[in-house]
Amino acid sequence: AQSVTQLDSQVPVFEEAPVELRCNYSSSVSVYLFWYVQYPNQGLQLLLKYLSGSTLVESINGFEAEFNKSQTSFHLRKPSVHISDTAEYFCAVSDTGFQKLVFGTGTRLLVSP
Amino acid sequence: ETGVTQTPRHLVMGMTNKKSLKCEQHLGHNAMYWYKQSAKKPLELMFVYSLEERVENNSVPSRFSPECPNSSHLFLHLHTLQPEDSALYLCASSQETGGGTEAFFGQGTRLTVV
Fold first, then answer.
1. Four-point Cα dihedral A2, B84, B102, B73, nearest 10
2. Predicted confidence (pLDDT) per residue in B36-61, tens digit
């Protein structure tokens, strides 16, 4: 069975500082990996995903994540955060398709001035 | 606007009430999903519909009853709920259920059972 671990429930950072949100997964087969973001009172939005190919994937708003098969990780990073990045971030894994998507418990990113 | 609309946004109901949650997608997708989001817990997949046929039911109690009359609409009928059913219920849709498919989520219905 697949599982996703997000060790940090909350990450406070100052504006313009770098941030890393950690995600580790367990699976016995090849996987697809996702990061979703949830802003207050909103549904989830896809931030970025890894399906195959380059292990480094980027989003349009400056986030990036790197798939590391040996460490079974898919950490999310941003070199300089903005106040507007305050949200909850969910890592998810799937092997056979979306209906089997398994989510982590989420990490709340709190960006302060 | 994500293209997936859920109504109502907030719902308070007693344990003996019957209510329904509605989800509508305007994206032309052929798969729709219900998720439950509780505090401090991972999102739980409840039901999956593909081409209006239920393809997944993750051991959800019978007090939750889904309905998918067409590919654009999805309902979740609720009856005799328990306080522990209080949560954010999220609807999502995708073009297909295949691997790597992006899902689009609605804003959710915040349900409180009293």
1. 140
2. 999 878 888 899 888 777 777 778 99
Q: At residue B1, does pLDDT exceed 70?
A: no
What is the structure's pLDDT at B24? 97
Measured CB to CB, residues of chain B less than 8 Å from chain A are 2, 4, 6, 31, 33, 40-43, 45, 48, 50, 55-56, 90, 92, 94, 97-108
Instruction: Report which of A57, A63, A62, A67 is spatially closest to residue A107, judged by C-alpha positions.
Output: A63
3-state secondary structure B32-44: EEEEEECCCCCCE
Asked whether B71 and B30 are in contact (CB, 8 A), the reply is yes
Tell me which residue has tokens 């960006």. A111
Give the pLDDT confidence of B6-40 residue by residue, as tens digits: 999 999 999 888 999 999 999 999 889 999 999 87
Give B10→chain A minimum CA distance, Å.
Answer: 11
Gap between the Cα atoms of A92 and A101, Å rounded: 6
